[in-house]
């Protein structure tokens, strides 16, 4: 302990992704102290990935003496006890893995290890270190390859009955709408998921030869990215703005149902598409107002996550602080 | 105390409605001990209604010596502290009424008084004395004049940020659908609310001259009720069955979004239309399966509320038991 942190103020946060593993040493008061990243090399299987996680943890615990524990945000289903990960998409060969047991085998001393769904970890990170900081309760929506989410209620993750709450991407805005990968008709992911939005943008822009996107996405408007839409929108491209408007309108509709159900009126939007900022959030704000019961329309807010992807590992570490506090 | 109940086991539960006020003496262990009803006479204004509530309370407290308190399920917005009712629909002249203060003025001794939204009170009643009894967490849906609801999470009402959670009737299943009274497009109430369903049934049956409903709803298929649809369905009427099928399908769609968001997989359906039983619940069950993420599809259940309208006053009384327990 050379730097003035007491070990009871420190935890390791891990954000386990399909391509990279981000790890951080986190101070309860100061947030991110130090961070590092490793390639996941998911194709080498779970033993290799767990080895990598263990060595990332040790790179921090070696320096600091000890930490309160390790929090891990992971894709896949997490059990109620926050010990196991089941069949994470993009991590081939994982069935049911008890992450704490696996780390204990690899570390010199056993460490409290908690695992949580990556979207939930990001929500908790936003609540304590990100754009959600000022809200006791809010819903986080992550607009990435898919559409993920988390419900933060009174500064804690709302986990539902089995720990799987927050699958906002599969909420429907049209019971006869397009079918998402989940098989759910009109799921918001079937509008805002990366591939769906890219295709929608292509069709919306095919006959708009004046759109800058025709230069950006070649050949033939394939592979339109949120970044292209944002850049074109900033340059005044009306076609790109209309696509983001279309997307924002859909987003506002699903958020309206959430407000009506939960009486939680604050939203933090993260993920790649959130980079489009007010080009997508302003139309979402307009639709949201129309989609909520008038009695619930005071205090509605949609803000962009400012902490970027760091909120994932920060929230993972914060789980450890909350866990320890609540058992004192 | 003549009948063996300790006063700490008793509370008064009130279900304040637009036409009648139901009141009960409730035992924590035995549930309903005694009940009575008075006309609301809402047009006589809040002073009269509050007088009536006070005399109903006294009719019980006079017998039993004392009770732990009074719980009231009320229409209108309830504040976070559960003390005030704001502008309840169907109760003209009410602005913001502090029900506890008003009762204290009218009773010999002040009594702990808690007020809660009527749908939430019914949900809590179902959780402890009704069809929700076996579920730690479930969502209650009330299909009446409007569509109401409550989220019961770990045997408690989930109240959201301000106490207004559970407005399931205003969740949308189609962002471009018909507009409900709330102004929300495709709100489930715009399909299943009494007037909407009645009109839908009329249009669906106009050209089906063989339907029994033509005899029941005269003249000209006006005023079709859930009861008529149920009676005709039981008699084998395919037209009536198709209407209930249509309604159940819509219900299953909105419940699917709830499961995906909350990971709460149990539903209790009450209110007039729930009397159609499996004629509406079976199609809802089928749609629900298709509307949830496959990972969340285990253990889905939709059951009919068996406690009828009594769950409202039972839940109102139970609020008092929970409140007292949690402050011990």
Please name the defining characteristics of this protein:
homodimer; 328 residues; alpha/beta; Nucleotidyltransferase, domain 5; 2 domains; five-stranded mixed β-sheet; 10 helices; 38% helix; 20% strand
Model description:
- The structure is a homodimer of 328-residue chains.
- Chain A has helices spanning 46-64, 99-106, 118-129, 189-192, 194-205, 213-216, 226-234, 238-262, 278-291, 310-326, and strands at 10-16, 20-27, 31-39, 70-74, 77-78, 84-86, 96-98, 113-117, 138-143, 147-153, 156-157, 266-270, 301-304.
- In chain A, the strands form three sheets. A five-stranded mixed sheet of chain A has the order 3-2-1-4-8, with helices on both faces. Chain A has a five-stranded mixed sheet with strand order 11-10-9-12-13, sandwiched between helices.
- The first copy, chain A, has two domains: 7-122 and 310-326, ATPase, nucleotide binding domain (Nucleotidyltransferase, domain 5, 2-Layer Sandwich), CATH 3.30.420; 135-304, ATPase, nucleotide binding domain (Nucleotidyltransferase, domain 5), CATH 3.30.420.40.
- The longest helix of chain A is centred in the C-terminal third of the chain and has 25 residues, at 238-262.
- Chain A has 328 residues and is an alpha/beta fold.
- Chain A contains ten helices and 13 strands.
- The first copy, chain A, is 38% helix and 20% strand.
- In chain A, helix 3 (118-129) packs across helix 10 (310-326).
- The mean pLDDT of chain A is 94.
